[in-house]
Write a sequence for this structure.
């Protein structure tokens, strides 16, 4: 280890998952102890075991010579964070933010409330000017009823140079509350923000993300937003996971990756044409007519269509597979979930192969499809029709529900193996 170049050792130490491992390295080697002051990234994790021990009424360990008490986590953070001289990235959080302690006193306690302005102001103004990335995760019991008021402090301390801010004051718990002014503060405090990840953030019903330099935006694990407008002309990756967004407006012409997951269909969508969209993932109940009319652009190469739950009565209104080909003509990879596959198969049964189909997916190379087998002959004809849409498809995986009767499975697989021997088969379950 000592023979490795110092720059490589510093990079290894900077990539350690927990500062506790960094402390062990310092004890194990004089060289590592010396180089630990040059790490550029620091991750400080509070384990679930530590959280529980800090709530013990007495010392966590007693020997004949002394009693051992847990050092407060905030004290550990303060002691570790000043040692490195060139920190560019800090991540502070918990091994499990959902560890719950049934004690009413936790609501009033703040020893594990890490986005407290009093706590963050002890160290951020001193080191903030050199930071490019900051992540703070709160403890659920203490953060669930508190609003984050640390954004202005972070913005002032970083002097506008905190460009790659990951989950600032947001990655806390699934019931973390913020008022509707929260996103306004983000827009005002971080005009040069490039990465924004809102995880389990609630309390924001309708608002706008207006960040001209934003490149990546994730909003996941939340019941909100009910209405969201994204105005980010340089955005290239957008991931939204919510229950029932009523309105979705996206003004991001450079978007390359769009991942939308909802439990119910979106009522209103206003989207500019995505001329650069390469990857589109839709997990929702209903890819209805308004969504089919969206100018997704003709550049989409990877498509995933699925529903959160299998429901043969909740049709997507996709129409025929010809319409899907017309909407996404240049696909190279397609994933079709069981709900989508079932609807396309029903349309195929009703109308048969279209005679007016002049082209298929000529560039398609990878197909992953979850087949719903109720009639072996029908499903086989539909599957063959899909396979014949591309002359170059080479990677095909067919997934069959494991509860399908064995005789159906063997009969269907035998029919396909004769003409398409390279198909990969797997069995799964979808609810």
């Amino acid at each position: 280890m000592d023979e490795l170049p110092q720059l490589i050792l510093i990079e290894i130490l900077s990539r350690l998952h927990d500062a506790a491992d960094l402390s062990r390295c310092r004890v194990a080697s004089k060289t590592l102890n010396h180089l630990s002051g040059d790490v550029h990234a620091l991750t400080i994790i509070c384990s679930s075991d530590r959280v529980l021990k800090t709530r013990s009424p007495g010392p966590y360990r007693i020997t004949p010579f002394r009693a051992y008490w847990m050092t407060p986590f905030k004290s550990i953070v303060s002691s570790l964070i000043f040692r490195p001289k060139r920190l560019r990235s800090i991540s502070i959080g918990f091994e499990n933010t959902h560890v719950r302690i049934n004690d009413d006193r936790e609501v009033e306690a703040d020893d594990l409330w890490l986005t407290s302005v009093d706590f963050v102001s002890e160290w951020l103004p001193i080191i903030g000017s050199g930071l490019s990335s900051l992540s703070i995760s709160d403890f659920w019991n203490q953060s669930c009823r508190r609003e984050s008021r640390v954004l202005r402090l972070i913005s002032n301390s970083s002097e506008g140079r905190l460009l790659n801010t990951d989950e600032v004051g947001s990655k806390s718990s699934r019931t973390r509350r913020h008022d509707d002014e929260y996103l306004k503060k983000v827009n005002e405090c971080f005009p040069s923000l490039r990465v924004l990840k809102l995880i389990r953030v609630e309390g924001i019903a309708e608002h706008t993300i207006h960040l001209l330099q934003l490149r990546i935006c994730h909003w996941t694990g939340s019941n909100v937003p009910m209405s969201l407008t994204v105005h980010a002309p340089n955005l290239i990756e957008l991931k939204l996971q919510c229950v029932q967004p009523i309105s979705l407006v996206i003004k991001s012409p450079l978007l390359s990756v769009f991942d939308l997951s909802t439990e119910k269909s979106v009522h209103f969508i206003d989207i500019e044409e995505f001329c650069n969209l390469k990857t589109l993932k839709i997990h929702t109940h209903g890819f209805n007519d308004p969504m089919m009319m969206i100018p997704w652009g003709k550049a989409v190469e990877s498509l995933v269509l699925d529903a959160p739950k299998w429901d043969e009565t909740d049709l997507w209104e996709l129409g025929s597979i010809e319409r899907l080909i017309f909407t996404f003509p240049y696909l190279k990879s397609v994933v079709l979930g069981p709900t989508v596959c079932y609807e396309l198969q029903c349309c195929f049964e009703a109308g048969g192969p279209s005679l007016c189909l002049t082209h298929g997916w000529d560039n398609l190379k990878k197909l992953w499809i979850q087949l719903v087998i109720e009639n072996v002959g029908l499903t086989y004809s539909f599957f063959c029709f899909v396979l014949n849409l591309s002359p170059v498809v080479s990677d095909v995986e067919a997934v069959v529900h494991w509860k399908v009767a064995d005789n159906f499975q063997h009969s269907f697989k035998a029919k396909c193996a004769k003409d398409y021997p390279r198909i990969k088969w797997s069995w799964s379950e979808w609810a």
Q: What stands out?
A: Residues 88 and 131 are 4 Å apart (CA to CA). The chain has 16 helices and 21 strands.
